[in-house]
């Protein structure tokens, strides 16, 4: 793989590490759902770097759009704070 | 242990174990579902990364009479395509059960749910 | 707080051990195609006529796994509708949308549905296929649910589409059993690779899967937003 792709992968890996820490340590569930959408987006870009565009389209549309939609519709009934 | 192997194997394994950690250390049922969805993403990336061929290209022969020499393994993406959609379906089912628990007991904290039992 | 970080350190050590084992047995990028994968890559276009090898694996070579996946999707969506039966939504749960959101959503939704239909119709020529196409159609309905003040979608349309698409999938498999002596076998001619009317039964199967997945996920969104039916 060329140099530019490796530098892009390193930046994305740092983004994943930061996003997982935010998801683990926050007490607000809305922030956690948005961090999960960021992790799905980065997984989709990894699928594109590994040369399989079929799985990249599927993961982008499911992880970023529909999973967030399910979580947000359910969060109206459950409540936004973790210690509830 | 070069930099490519560290990123493309290390990040999925890190995602799987962070998912396990979120499930273990939280007391809220909704956050446990978020941890399970993290584990799902990690495993799918790991399976596709095991089938990469260095210098290979995607297995779609757009200019048909010309065959590419090196293509990426086509069997793991065919399995992962199915697995991603099934992960979405079971997440929906888990959310509906958590909604019903909140309606009946008033809380989704696992410690308080154990009190209400007897 | 200290205990959480102790768990994190223990799991990090464990994951480093797993990474070392995997990276020693399967070095990254040293995979060579042998056996079944080599047969699919060499003979996939000659046998079936579709130039997307992943698509022809999912529909024809491993078609039975796709039938199992369609069954699992149907089962979990039915169980979700059954769990939320009689769940009443007392108050309106989304705030009122503004005029810009309402008009913009009404203009964007048909374009998104057109994109989804393009992706599942050209499944044998370009990346994509039936599953992402159906999901994008469900995303268009999600946009309409969120941005319109009142959006009524009758449940009977969704359930009839889903049931018809699922039954036709099994019937196509049985027709293959009658003509070619194998369930879900290819019984149409392959045509010239690269044209849209080619590749045997692959466009038909992806059409049915696109309709089925789209209507199922729209039914799930409707149940989560407005509660289930009456008891």
Describe the protein's topology:
The complex is a heterotrimer of chains A (about 80), B (about 120) and C (about 230).
Chain A (H helix, E strand, L loop, with lengths): L2 H23 L3 H21 L3 H26 L6
Helix pairs in contact in A: 1-2, 2-3
Chain B lengths: L2 H23 L3 H21 L25 H31 L4 H8 L1
Chain C lengths: L1 H24 L10 H13 L4 H9 L1 H21 L15 H23 L8 H18 L7 H26 L21 H25 L5
Helix pairs in contact in C: 3-4, 4-8, 5-6, 6-8, 7-8
Annotation keywords:
heterotrimer, A: 84 residues, mainly alpha, 3 helices, 83% helix, C: 231 residues, 8 helices, globular
Describe the structure.
The complex is a heterotrimer of chains A (about 80), B (about 120) and C (about 230). With about 80 residues, chain A is mainly alpha-helical. In chain A, about 85% of the residues lie in helices and about 0% in strands. Chain A has one domain. Chain B is mainly α and about 120 residues long. Chain B has a single domain (about 5-60, about 65-115), classed as Helix Hairpins (Orthogonal Bundle), CATH 1.10.287. Helix content of chain B is about 70%, strand content about 0%. Chain B is built from four helices and no strands. Chain B has helices spanning about 5-25, 30-50, 75-105, 110-115. Chain C is an all-alpha fold and about 230 residues long. Chain C has one domain (about 1-225). Chain C is about 70% helix and about 0% strand. The mean pLDDT of chain C is about 90. The interface between A and B is large, with 41 and 47 residues.
């Amino acid at each position: 793989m060329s140099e530019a792709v490796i530098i892009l992968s390193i930046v994305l890996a740092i983004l994943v590490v930061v996003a997982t820490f935010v998801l683990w340590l926050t007490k607000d569930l809305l922030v956690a759902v948005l961090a999960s959408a960021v992790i799905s987006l980065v997984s989709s870009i990894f699928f594109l770097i590994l040369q399989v565009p079929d799985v990249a389209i599927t993961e982008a549309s499911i992880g970023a759009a529909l999973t967030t939609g399910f979580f947000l519709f359910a969060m109206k009934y459950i409540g936004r704070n973790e210690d509830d | 242990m070069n930099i490519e192997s560290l990123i493309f194997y290390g990040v999925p394994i890190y995602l799987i174990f962070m998912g396990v950690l979120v499930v273990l250390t939280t007391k809220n049922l909704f956050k446990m579902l978020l941890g399970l969805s993290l584990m799902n993403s990690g495993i799918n990336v790991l399976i596709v990364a095991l089938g990469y061929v260095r210098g290979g290209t995607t297995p779609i022969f757009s200019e048909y009479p010309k065959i590419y020499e090196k293509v990426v393994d086509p069997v793991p993406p065919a399995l992962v395509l199915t697995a991603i959609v099934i992960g979405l379906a079971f997440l929906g089912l888990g959310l509906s059960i958590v909604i019903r628990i909140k309606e009946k007991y008033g809380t989704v904290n696992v410690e308080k749910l154990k009190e209400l039992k007897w | 707080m200290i205990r959480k970080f102790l768990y994190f350190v223990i799991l990090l050590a464990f994951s480093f051990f797993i990474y070392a084992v995997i990276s020693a047995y399967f070095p990254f990028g040293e995979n060579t195609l042998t056996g079944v994968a080599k047969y699919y890559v060499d003979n996939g276009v000659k046998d079936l006529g579709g130039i997307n090898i992943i698509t022809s694996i999912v529909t024809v070579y491993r078609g039975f796994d796709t039938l199992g996946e369609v069954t699992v999707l149907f089962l979990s969506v039915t169980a979700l509708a059954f769990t939320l039966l009689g769940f009443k939504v007392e108050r309106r749960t989304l705030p009122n949308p503004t005029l810009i959101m309402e008009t913009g959503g009404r203009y964007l939704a048909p374009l998104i549905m057109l994109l989804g239909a393009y992706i599942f119709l050209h499944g044998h020529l370009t990346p994509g296929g039936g599953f992402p196409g159906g999901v994008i159609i469900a995303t268009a309905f999600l946009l309409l649910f969120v941005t319109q003040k009142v959006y009524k979608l009758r449940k009977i349309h969704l359930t009839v589409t889903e049931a018809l698409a699922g039954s036709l999938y099994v019937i196509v498999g049985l027709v293959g059993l009658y003509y070619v002596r194998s369930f879900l076998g290819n019984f149409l001619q392959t045509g010239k690779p690269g044209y849209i009317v080619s590749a045997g039964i692959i466009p038909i199967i992806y059409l049915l899967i696109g309709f089925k997945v789209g209507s199922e996920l729209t039914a799930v969104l409707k149940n989560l937003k407005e509660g289930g039916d009456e008891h």
